[in-house]
Specification:
Strands 1-3-2 form a three-stranded antiparallel β-sheet. The protein has four helices and three strands. It has a domain of about 50 residues.
């Protein structure tokens, strides 16, 4: 391995180590947001296309997601899940016969 490749590998591994050390109050990059919320980057971009992505801010060439935007995104996803489950339960209840007699 050449010296140049070795240095590049060391820099990249140092970046990866640092990106896992998220402190409270720090803004996320898209990869660290995905790791923090246990979703894949492809799912993140799919949700973003559907209009369900987290709010983003641009700082220079970087896209960041603040802690507040992450919390709001989680609340929205939780509310969406709750509404889906209630609708599903209501639909299942309406399919049940009202008068079931045991004979």
């Amino acid at each position: 391995m050449t010296t140049r490749k070795r240095k590049r590998k060391i820099r990249r591994s140092a970046f990866k180590r640092g990106s896992r050390e998220h402190r409270p109050g720090d803004a996320h990059t898209i990869p660290s947001f995905c790791v923090s919320n246990r979703i894949s980057p492809s799912l993140y971009y799919k949700l973003k296309r559907q209009g369900k992505g987290a709010r983003e801010i641009e700082v220079g060439d970087r896209i960041l997601i603040t802690e507040e935007a992450e919390a709001d995104w989680r609340r929205e996803r939780e509310a969406e899940t709750t509404a889906k489950r209630k609708a599903k339960a209501k639909a299942a209840a309406s399919r049940q016969p009202d008068n079931v007699s045991a004979t």
